[in-house]
Amino acid sequence: MKRREMTSMREKLPATPRGYLPPWMRILFVTGPNRTGGWLAESFADDSAAEIRLEEAHGMASGLEKLRHEVFDVVLVSHEVNHLDALEFLAGLRAVTSDDQPIVILGSASEQEMAAVCYEAGADAYVCAHTTTMRTLMWKLALAMERHELVTENRRLNQDQTQRLEREHDESLRLLNQQKAMIRDAENFSQFPSSAASAQVPCSPNNDEVETSLSSALVEHYRELLRAYVIMGTGNLNAEMLLLVNRFTAESGTARQAMGLHLTVLEETILGLGSRSARHVMNRADMLILEVTINLADRYREVAVLGETKSTAVDSPRFNCIA
Question: What are phi and psi of 168, to 5 degrees?
Fold first, then answer.
């Protein structure tokens, strides 16, 4: 049976639940001259717990050649001193196939003597032919298959997780670039000369210069506030928010500067995340800039109303009462 046909057949079968023997197994038994597979096939046939399809390969070269062209659920290797060295076969097998091939070694020595050596060589299990039973051997083979399925699934999940994080980072940086472009477009619109007087309005700094146009204390304050906001969220940072608003209004910061500062600090944070998710940071950052904008708008409205009130009080005429 060819490798592609075997893989297609395996995909059509229902997955075996964890902790159960699979309904059938296709096993390659690599043997030497001292231990043939006839007795093993008969023993498997007598046990109806699972349907075993056993194929035999005589010698290391024959076994490696079969594995180059065919797929087996598990490989059972007979360790025979002076005839077939299973550890040497393992080294050759790893050179021609992937690490996802389950391998169990069957030998005459006790498990206490050989198990650790076989594990270190890359085998999934060692079974002593003189002390094991067919049901135990079946379970050893099934557990080797299950372990490799779990390893493969875990590798696939890790790859999916890595790809998802990469997509999140790319999407976050794309959104940041779009928001920067919006700020530049808004700046260009505000600077468009609608009259001769407006043509004399000086240009404000571009987006890359926003951070330097504000004090380093304000920039660092916002950086720390964003970090805390990502962890804690809203509700616990009222004092820090009030201090930020006071500092920003004291420096007469504009709305564009506030947004530019936000994007600059947020981009630093996203680029420093590494393998961590960017979605949570972006969501919390959106909440932070919304809260900052609302507070700044309220503060500037209070300042404008107060200035208007003072101006009205100064300009109002005083009337003397005539007795």
Answer: -65, -45
Structure tokens at 83: 């005839």
Q: Name, in order, each residue with C-beta under 8 angstroms of 280's C-beta and a sequence gap of 6 or more.
A: 230
Query: Angle, nearest 10°, between helix axes 216-232 and 238-250?
Result: 160
> What is the per-residue burial (b if ≥16 Cβ within 10 Å, else e) of 236-269?
ebeeebeebbebbeeeebbebbbbbbbbbbbbeb
Strand partners, 55: 28
Q: For residues 31 and 14, is the Cβ–Cβ distance under 8 A?
A: no
Residue 189: CB atoms within 10 Å: 8
User: Do 96 and 67 form a contact (C-beta atoms < 8 A)?
Assistant: yes
Mean pLDDT of 193-221: 55
Helix axes 134-191, 38-46, angle to 10 degrees: 80
> Do residues 201 and 191 make contact, with C-beta atoms less than 8 angstroms apart?
yes
Token pair listed for 181: 């472009």
The Cα 31–Cα 65 span in angstroms is 14
Strand boundaries in the chain, DSSP class E: 24-31, 51-58, 74-79, 103-107, 125-128
Phi-psi region of 233 (alpha: psi -120 to 50; beta: other; left: phi over 0): left
The H-or-E segment that residue 52 falls in is strand 51-58
SS3 107: strand
Cα–Cα dist 152/286, whole Å: 38
Q: Which of 86, 79, 88 is nearest to 107 (CA)?
A: 79
Helix (H, G, I), strand (E, B) or coil at 197: coil
Token readout for 307 is: 């200035």
Angle subtended at Cα 33 by Cα 30 and Cα 34, rounded to the nearest 5 degrees? 100
What is the percent of the chain with per-residue pLDDT over 70, rounded to a whole number?
79
pLDDT (0 to 100) of residue 208: 45
Amino acid letter at 273?
Answer: L
The dihedral region occupied by 274, where left means phi > 0, alpha psi between -120 and 50, and beta the remainder, is left
Render pLDDT for 211-250 as a digit per residue (tens, 0 to 9). Answer: 447 888 899 999 999 999 888 876 678 888 888 888 888 8
